[in-house]
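Final report, Chapter 2: Outcomes

The project's central promise was a pipeline that accepts a single protein chain and returns its three-dimensional structure in a standardized token representation, suitable for archiving and comparison. That pipeline is now operational. To close this chapter, we reproduce one record exactly as it appears in the project archive, with the input sequence first and the structure output second.
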Amino acid sequence: MSAARSGALRETCARLAEADDAEFGVRLLGNTPTHEARGPEELERWAEAATAFGTELAARAGPHGGAGRTGARVVERDGGLDALLLARYVSRPVPTVELYTDTLALGEELAGWLGWRTWFAAGALRGAALAHEEAHCLLHGDAALRRALRDRLGHSALRLGRLRIPGHVAGADELAAHAYAAARCGLGRTPLLLTAALASAVRALGED
């Protein structure tokens, strides 16, 4: 990467780091289809609720993270950079967490290069990716847990008198999984910060 491109990337990532973690949650929901017309107050409320849910779920899960708690096997492969994939959970034919080693390696290099090791310790990205997918596994396999998340969000799909049917909030499970991963792995900042920095790095590398 050229010196000019490298300097521009550092500046971009520094600006990203100036945003607080709550703002990243609001951005995630705001960029999720179906939320285009939602107001900032509603998005902030949902982001706060989903983040708190994920953090509390991690506290109940105990000290050890990883997909092993859910029985999913872990497979490492490359090919994640183009889609900016760190990991992916697939339930069929066998519950599996796919870890994308090329994206993880770039993320580790980027965290060190930016001086973000206080927030993202060496090796923490792999653990966070596993914990993130663990959260998705837990939500996927537990209807009561999904209902609890919907109840926490407080969104109503339908109201008829006293009857209230909780509605699905697209993106809330993803935000809860990020919070779960951050809490399980003791990260100093939300994984969404490093994901945003990774996206900027991939663009810069492609343009160089």
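Archive annotation: The mean pLDDT is 86.
This record, like all others produced under the grant, will remain available to the consortium after the project formally closes.
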